[in-house]
């Protein structure tokens, strides 16, 4: 039970990663196993961007005024982190990293994949191994969506032909119900 994210979410975030390495570990007809590595400077950049993003939605912090225009004041990251909770911030960051890195790979390879992304490491393992400024890596399994085959078309035809006798059968029952009604 690893961390879950969605490929579709990658486009919603404003996060951009400049340097990360994606390696295909194993590939078959149904799944692609990836290893994604981020250098320390990228993890720090993501961490800072995530704190800034979360701070915008955070309630006012006592002792720190908001700037004019409702902009967030410059609150030290240690205070923000303790206020928001390290676990919450880390989960948000992991979600962003997963969505952006895997979304980038899917787009570059022009793949059709199941939108749900799952890591092989547990959520707890990922959280404990992530540290801003340190390199970070994780494994992902992508499930490929199957192209419509001729087998699928046959299944559709069979299901349509199975529906047809039901319609005929209901038509044949209706006149038998009407006969007693017309004779009385």
How would you portray this structure in words?
The longest helix is centred in the C-terminal third of the chain and has 34 residues. About 20% of the residues have low confidence. Strands 1-4-5-3-2 form a five-stranded antiparallel β-sheet. It is elongated and about 60 Å long. It is built from five helices and five strands; from the N terminus they run βββαααβαβα. The chain folds into two domains: 146 residues, Alpha-Beta Plaits, CATH 3.30.70.1050; 37 residues. Strand 2 and strand 3 form a beta hairpin. Helix content is 49%, strand content 19%. The chain has 184 residues and is an alpha+beta fold. Helix 1 crosses helix 2 and helix 1 packs across helix 3. It starts with a strand and ends with a helix. It comes from Aegilops tauschii subsp. strangulata.
Features:
single chain, 184 residues, alpha+beta, Alpha-Beta Plaits, 2 domains, five-stranded antiparallel β-sheet
Summarize the helices and strands and which ones pair or pack.
Layout: E1 2-6, E2 21-27, E3 31-38, H1 40-57, H2 77-84, H3 86-109, E4 116-122, H4 123-129, E5 136-143, H5 150-183
Antiparallel strand pairs: 1-4, 2-3, 3-5, 4-5
Helix pairs in contact: 1-2, 1-3
Biased composition (Acidic residues): 149-160, 171-184
Region (Disordered): 149-184
Keywords: Chaperone, Isomerase, Rotamase
């Amino acid at each position: 039970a690893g961390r879950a994210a969605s490929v579709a979410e990658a486009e919603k975030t404003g996060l951009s990663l400049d340097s990360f390495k994606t390696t295909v570990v194993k590939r078959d007809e149904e799944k692609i196993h990836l290893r994604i590595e981020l250098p320390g400077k990228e993890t720090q950049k993501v961490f800072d961007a995530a704190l800034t993003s979360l701070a915008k939605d955070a309630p006012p912090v006592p002792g720190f005024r908001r700037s004019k225009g409702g902009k967030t004041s410059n609150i030290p990251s240690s205070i923000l982190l303790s206020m928001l909770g390290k676990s919450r911030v880390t989960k948000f960051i992991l979600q962003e990293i997963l969505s952006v890195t895997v979304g980038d790979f899917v787009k570059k390879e022009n793949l059709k994949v199941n939108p749900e992304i799952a890591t092989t490491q547990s959520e707890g393992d990922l959280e404990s191994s992530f540290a801003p400024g340190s390199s970070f890596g994780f494994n992902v399994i992508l499930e490929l969506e199957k192209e419509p085959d001729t087998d699928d078309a046959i299944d559709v035809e069979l299901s349509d032909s199975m529906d047809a006798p039901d319609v005929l059968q209901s038509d044949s029952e209706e006149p038998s119900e009407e006969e007693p009604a017309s004779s009385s």
